[in-house]
Amino acid sequence: MRAVVVALGKIGLPIAVHIARAGHDVVGCDIDPRVRDAVAAGRAPFPGEAHLDDYLTEVVDAGRLTVSGDTTAAVAAGADLVIVVPPLIVDREARPDWRVMDAALTDVGRGLQAGTVVSVETTLPTGSTRSRVAPMLADLSGLRSEADFFTVHSPERVFSGRIFADLETYPKLVGGLTDAGEARAVELYRTFIRQAEVWGMGSAEAAELAKLAETTYRDINIAFANELARHADAIGVDVDRVIDASNSQPFSHIHRPGIAVGGHCIPVYPRFYLAGDPDARVPAAARASNLEMPSYAVDLLRDLLGGSLDGARVHVLGAAYRGGVKETAFSGVFDVFDALRDRGATPLVSDPLYTDDELRALGLEPFDGHPVDGVIVQADHAEYRDLAAEALDGARAVVDGRGVVDVDALRAAGVAVKRIGRP
Length: 423
Fold this sequence. Notes:
By secondary structure, the chain is an alpha/beta fold. The protein is 40% helix and 14% strand. Helix 1 packs across helix 3 (52-61), helix 5 packs across helix 6 and helix 13 (293-304) packs across helix 14 (332-342).
């Protein structure tokens, strides 16, 4: 098989490498010359993905993965499978901006040849493959959709940092616009998804909805956990004990509460779901509840500091939305930062993965090393698990939004500590 993968980001590059490791010839396309240069040299252009450095070197040295900045030419040279996985950019309200996706599809369409399967792995609002993607490709190529070429949706279902393992763990979902197109795509995916099952979904809409359903479920579940935590705070019980007890029988799978729900998926895809089902009440309520958590954490710190944050200096630990990952998509740091300022505090941010200049570029004020009144742990970086009182720059109170700090050690040093949902 010859495959073309469009957009060599944190999802696209591991997929390209995975296909090449199965023995296929892959052309990876990206508009960023720095990404292309790194990949061509066998170097991962981003950190944190297990095995990527070794696997990338392997397939580049073997000549099975090459790179190109000309997607149209790569597709025009002939491909059995074209996987399109650029980001669908969204604003802070999760409204999609199609310009990046449309640009990638335009490049593909202009080079599209008969017999090719085009698979979009970027998560899409329901109906997008049929109503937007396929007609665009047909118009640009002059080919007949589902006669000369096939279009399918196969949503990525992987987690940054463990993508190679996830690709061979979870079923690969493939939904086509016709039975013939779906069957051909399933056949191609099975040539490089060797251990996991490949499921035909019966339609592109079913594949689109499955991804939106699984991520929306997580948002709803986390919202319930957060509601439990807030109630536990009100009545003075430990929400972790409550959740552990509830989950001890097989019908309950409650997630864990936290200061924020971040990343490219969980905060975004419920909005995509609601775009197709605007009367759905539960996803909307869950999203609203989760959005309140950064402000709730700030109020916990206010209470620890005597009821006011006016004039307080607060050190926010962690800009990333998740520990160990250099990514701030929908990170809770932004809402924590804004909530602190709204209450008269001076928020200052540090993160072991970000430089001061990078934090400033994100609109955040870097921590300046001077004494602070309070600390909020926003990300669960491993570096925060052994925080000592002397490393808190004089802070009298800590709100641990991720449940990671050594509470007993800090309290023994005279620091007040509050974890969400725990006494």
